[in-house]
């Protein structure tokens, strides 16, 4: 049986019940010229394919269903492709391609960065030339490869061995996870789309999401994060059968911060993650797992991640080095299905081109030197620091705030989320009176979808101040609350 009709974006062949071949339209001509392929055509049933990765045909994720028109329209920059090629070529390659400037004209000669452990990172003239030059948009190969090894070791993502079209795990470097988040939302969210998240949430996420004109639906949460039953209730407004109907309003994206939430300090339990993942399967949702506090978990073993459960290729995970290596270097990572990572990389190509080669090399040299064990030892020492800070904040809260506030002890991150008793909105209290008393916290309302609604919470960070300063701050806050009651 032979049916020949192609879709706009490509075609799907069913080679056998088990083997599916998905070809993008750009590659079609080459494939059809291939002799080997021509022979195999005898065994091929060709399917109509208006939708490149149609679930019903291939049994894989239909990623095109999730893309905005802007993202779907992004095309690789021919010059950037050459840069990637050059990056992977032997030094004997003579390239007259590209428009890279000549680094001999740059004023910087060499750099030695002294490490706190007494070691150093050296940039001689050759590595300096590389550090100061354009590089590929996915990130420098050795950093990406180091990070892929780390993801495999920490999360064993099921998608590592998948075929590309089935959602094979891919990674790219982003200029902080904020860049990744912003580009992921631009890739997935149209005006009017229903988007799920558990507010109060990171204000940077709201800042990236709200201008897209989407309808943010709040899923109730507690100190263990998003409540799966609440998610189920919200989703029950729709029939899972509607999901792929054109024009369906079923949400396609769920965002959450699984560990040490900003601002709540909440961490999802493994059980909740499994339930949420299951619901995501039922309703074909993508989950954006924004996890910059993953490495700041105070208990071991660390919680299993959504990425570790991702049998479908529906997780987009954002990691960040901001909390463990440096926030100013701006190094983050996106991990997800190749099809989606590629879309974000095309956006990077068209905007920043790549994260600073210098900072990538600096971090990469450090990581190569440390190895995974050295990196994880460093993470342990950072965790120890924040655990002590957290404990100091909790004991100061116990000392000064017991009668006037309530909180849950966070098991990760750097924030304590404090509910002030008898105060309906903390905005005025913090922005006016607290400043007079020389203590500053973040009024909780800024983390809500509608920041104008009254909110009785404040966020206190235990990252920067000394235990003595934290104690004094809570003493002042306690006096302030008592005066306001
Ligand atoms: C939940 C959350 N996501 C993302 C970010 C952005 O981090 P980065 O410095 O990696 O851009 C932050 C920063 O505080 C955050 O709290």
Supply Rg: 25 Å
Shape: globular
Number of strands: 18
Instruction: State the name of the first-level CATH class of one domain.
Output: Alpha Beta
CATH superfamily of one domain: Type I PLP-dependent aspartate aminotransferase-like (Major domain)
The fraction of residues in strands falls at: 15-25%
Helix content: 25-40%
CATH topology of one domain: Aspartate Aminotransferase, domain 2
Catalytic activity: glyoxylate + L-phenylalanine = 3-phenylpyruvate + glycine; L-tryptophan + glyoxylate = indole-3-pyruvate + glycine; 3-phenylpyruvate + L-kynurenine = kynurenate + L-phenylalanine + H2O; L-2-aminoadipate + glyoxylate = 2-oxoadipate + glycine
Keywords: Aminotransferase, Pyridoxal phosphate, Transferase
GO biological process, one term: alpha-amino acid metabolic process
GO molecular function, one term: glycine:2-oxoglutarate aminotransferase activity
């Amino acid at each position: 049986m032979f049916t020949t009709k192609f879709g706009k974006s490509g075609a799907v062949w069913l080679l056998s019940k088990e083997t599916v071949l998905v070809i993008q339209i750009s590659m079609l001509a080459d494939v059809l010229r291939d002799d080997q392929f021509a022979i195999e055509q005898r065994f091929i049933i060709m399917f109509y394919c208006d939708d490149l990765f149609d679930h019903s045909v291939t049994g894989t994720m239909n990623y095109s269903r999730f893309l905005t028109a802007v993202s779907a329209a992004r095309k690789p920059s021919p010059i950037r492709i050459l840069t990637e090629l050059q990056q992977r070529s032997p030094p004997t390659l003579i390239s007259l391609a590209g428009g890279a400037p000549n680094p001999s004209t740059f004023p910087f000669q060499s750099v030695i960065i002294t490490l706190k452990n007494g070691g150093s990172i050296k940039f001689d003239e050759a590595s300096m030339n590389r550090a100061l030059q354009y590089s590929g948009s996915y990130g420098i190969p050795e950093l990406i490869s180091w990070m892929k090894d780390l993801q495999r070791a920490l999360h064993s993502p099921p998608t590592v061995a998948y075929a590309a079209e089935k959602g094979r795990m891919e990674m790219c470097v982003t200029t902080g996870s904020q860049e990744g988040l912003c580009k992921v939302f631009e890739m997935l969210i149209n005006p009017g789309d229903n988007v799920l998240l558990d507010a109060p949430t990171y204000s940077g996420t709201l800042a990236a999401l709200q201008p897209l004109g989407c309808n943010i639906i709040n899923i109730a949460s507690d100190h263990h994060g998003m409540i799966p039953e609440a998610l189920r209730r919200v989703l029950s407004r729709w029939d899972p059968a509607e999901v792929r109907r054109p024009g369906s309003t079923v949400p396609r994206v769920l965002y959450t911060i699984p560990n040490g939430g900003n601002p709540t300090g909440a961490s999802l339990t493994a059980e909740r993650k499994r339930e949420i993942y299951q619901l995501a399967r039922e309703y074909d949702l993508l989950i954006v797992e924004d996890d910059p506090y993953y490495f700041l978990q105070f208990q071991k073993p660390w919680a299993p991640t959504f990425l570790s459960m991702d049998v479908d290729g529906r997780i987009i995970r954002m990691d960040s080095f901001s909390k463990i290596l440096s926030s100013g270097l701006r190094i983050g990572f996106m991990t997800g299905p190749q099809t989606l990572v590629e879309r974000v990389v095309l956006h990077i190509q068209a905007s920043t081109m790549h994260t600073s080669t210098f900072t990538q090399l600096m971090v990469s040299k450090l990581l190569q030197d440390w190895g995974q064990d050295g990196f994880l030892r460093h993470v342990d020492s950072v965790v120890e620091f924040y655990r002590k800070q957290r404990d100091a904040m909790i004991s100061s809260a116990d000392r000064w705030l017991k009668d006037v506030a309530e909180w849950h002890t966070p098991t990760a991150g750097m924030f304590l989320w404090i509910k002030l008793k008898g105060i309906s909105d903390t905005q005025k209290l913090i922005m006016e009176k607290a400043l007079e008393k020389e203590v500053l916290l973040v009024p909780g309302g800024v983390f809500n979808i509608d920041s104008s609604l009254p909110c009785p919470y404040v966020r206190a960070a235990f990252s920067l101040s000394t235990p003595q300063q934290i104690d004094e701050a809570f003493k002042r806050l306690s006096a302030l609350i008592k005066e306001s009651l």
